[in-house]
What we know:
Elements: H1 3-38, H2 44-74, H3 78-103
Amino acid sequence: MDFSEAIELAGKAVDSAGVAVLVIGAVVAAVRAIQNARAHLPDTYRRFRQQLGRTILLGLELLVAADIIRTVAVTPTLSSVLVLAIIVLIRTFLSFSLELEITGRWPWQGDAGDRPTGTTSP
């Protein structure tokens, strides 16, 4: 096995991990939502959306990593790098949108509990 085959295999492995995270995470989120609904717990839908959103974020990160591995290490042509850049931009936008949907704030805003007492954010 030469270097490019090993890198291609690594890219496929990370791709597979990303898809597995998406499928398993969606199933786990759905099962928990059904259990919460049967137990009549409040905010079942919100919890389901948050867990599903976190699953999608993790899966997207793995899929982006696989794209980077394959593009940079296997086929580093200008056109493949441009396609990768577009894919990363789209997935980054999706990640930011999901983060806003899950937490109610942008990723760079941090958590209100992270700030020392008596300080305000700009």
